[in-house]
Amino acid sequence: MRCPFCGADDTQVKDSRPTDDRGAIRRRRFCGNCAARFTTFERVQLRELTVVKKNGQREPFDRDKLARSLYVSLRKRPVEPERVERIINSLVRQLESSGETEIPSDMVGELVMEALAALDQVAYIRFASVYRNFREAKDFGEFVGRIAADGDD
């Protein structure tokens, strides 16, 4: 593993242990070149996934990008990080087990919307505002109105 600080190729693993959800191995590493310490995570990847964007562009699926979008939506919300990690793992498993190697970006967005709707309404609205590309305040109002109407059923 290459050191993220000095770029040295030879780093040593000092400690390995499973994460709390047992979905990954956490490794503490040490760089003999610059004496830096850092952590890496090793996860099982069932297949290489490619995300197909609306414009046809393809890019490798990035778990970290998915995690960042969830954490941005959940910023300052009362949701435990362990719960968010479980959701991220669940979303990745759903995508990997779909049987497809090319996943439309719409599918990823809809899965995230479903997960956030069940987890936290404010985060759901935050994510939807970017995902659905709200342009005006009335777009928010209409969306929130639909959520409120669905909740009354």
Describe this structure in words.
This protein has 153 residues and is of the alpha+beta class. It has two domains: 1-44; 46-152. It is 45% helix and 21% strand. It has helices at residues 63-73, 81-96, 105-119, 121-131, 137-152; strands at residues 11-18, 24-31, 37-43, 50-52, 58-60, 102-104. A three-stranded antiparallel β-sheet has the order 1-2-3, with no helix packed on it. Helix 1 (63-73) packs across helix 2 (81-96), helix 1 (63-73) packs across helix 4 (121-131) and helix 3 (105-119) packs antiparallel against helix 4 (121-131). The longest helix has 16 residues, at 81-96.
Give the overall shape, derived from the CA principal axes.
Answer: elongated
Measured on Cα atoms, how large is the radius of gyration? 19 Å
What's the average pLDDT? Answer: 88
How far is the first residue's CA from the last residue's CA? 53 Å
Count every beta strand, where a strand is a DSSP E run of 2 or more residues: 6
Helix and strand string, N-terminal first? EEEEEHHEHHH
The domain tally reads 2
Going across the major beta sheet, what is the strand order?
1-2-3
Strand content range: 15-25%
Into which percent range does the helicity of residues fall? 40-55%
Q: Count every helix, treating DSSP H or I runs of 4 or more residues as helices.
A: 5
* Class by alpha and beta content: alpha+beta
Biggest β-sheet, characterized? Answer: 3 strands, antiparallel
Spans where pLDDT lies below 50 across 5 or more residues: none
